[in-house]
Amino acid sequence: MPVETREISVTAKEDCGIVNITEMVSKEVKNSKIRTGTVTVFCIGSTGAISTMEYESNLSKDISEMLEELIPLNKDYHHHKTWGDYNGGSHLRSFLVGPSLTVPFVEKSLTLGTWQQIVCINFDRIEKVRKIVLQIIGDF
């Protein structure tokens, strides 16, 4: 089965910066030779994540507030003793949400819901350029 690997990148703000990458992923699928299959979207790094959501500013705030209740960034985590970078909560949030997502596509069109977008989330305490690997697999 044919496989194409591509890389995209986005700049995401610190502490739960959410970036809509749907169009970027869709463009790469459309530019591939593969017509029907799946695309795996994988965020490189241990403080970033990939998910889907209805991408709108109030829901982004809700997600940030929910994660702050579940995993407060200013808590004194054991990880801080390792590197002194005080991003233990960032690592835990990334662990919770996860680094990847697989999306099916048919005739080069992602099979997402009307209000469903693919997002990259930066949980680190600093703004970062996030590299994202796309692995497109399927039939010509």
Automatic annotation (TrEMBL):
Query: SUPFAM superfamilies attached here?
Result: YjbQ-like
Q: Which Gene3D superfamilies does the record associate with it?
A: YjbQ-like
Q: Which InterPro entries does this UniProt record tie to the protein?
A: UPF0047_YjbQ-like, YjbQ-like_sf
- Give the record's family classification: Belongs to the UPF0047 family.
Which PANTHER family does the protein's record reference? UNCHARACTERIZED PROTEIN YJBQ-RELATED (PTHR30615), UPF0047 PROTEIN C4A8.02C (PTHR30615:SF8)
Name of the protein described by the UniProt record: Secondary thiamine-phosphate synthase enzyme
- Species assigned in the record: Methanosarcina siciliae HI350
Q: What is the lineage of its organism?
A: Archaea, Methanobacteriati, Methanobacteriota, Stenosarchaea group, Methanomicrobia
